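WARN retry 2 of 3 for item q-0093 after timeout on previous attempt; input resubmitted unchanged.
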Amino acid sequence: MKSGGILGSTLETEPAKAEGARAALDQALREFAARGLTADELEATLAEVKTQFLRGNERKDARAATLGTLEMLGLGAAFFEAFPAELGGVTLEEINAYIKDILAPARASWVRIGPKK
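OK item q-0093 returned
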């Protein structure tokens, strides 16, 4: 799973503006891939991920599902408690390398849902 990643986005626009909107999003993603994250952006992102992880696992049924998933992935249930600390070990260099290599615009696929005209 290290060599895969998904960065999703949704554009909602009039059909006549769709191609221009797609081109603008493509340009924004290319600029993001070239620039990467700043230290402040990484810090904010890690805080958000930790918060969402904790909130998403407050209920017993959600926590049980997460523990089961961790077991299936081979990480073990103990990884549940280790996850926040693991996030803290992510470096700016690592995440920017991931963005450039795995989320590279050249690897992008576009899915269009809706009419072309």
